[in-house]
Design a protein that fits this description.
Layout (H helix, E strand, L loop, with lengths): L8 H26 L8 H20 L3 H4 L7
Helix pairs in contact: 1-2
Length: 76
């Protein structure tokens, strides 16, 4: 599958920053779950947030935005 670049350097940078932040939040939730400071059900949202962060980082590296590919015009 080939992804056509549909974002510029600003979009890549923004997605990288957001992806890193989302990734950190997912890892923080997983760490809190592992230390048993949160309920057991928080493992699933932590995993979902972590995977979302990986996807956003993928978008930053490839230079492709899923939302733009669907036809939505984003400001950045």
């Amino acid at each position: 599958m080939m992804f056509t670049c549909n974002i510029d350097q600003r979009g890549k940078t923004m997605r990288f920053v957001v992806g890193a932040l989302v990734e950190a939040i997912g890892l923080l939730l997983a760490a809190l779950w592992f230390l048993e400071w949160t309920p057991a059900w928080t493992a699933w949202p932590a995993l979902a947030i972590w995977l979302a962060g990986i996807f956003v980082l993928f978008e930053a590296v490839v230079g492709w935005c899923a939302i733009r590919a669907l036809g939505v015009k984003t400001p950045i």
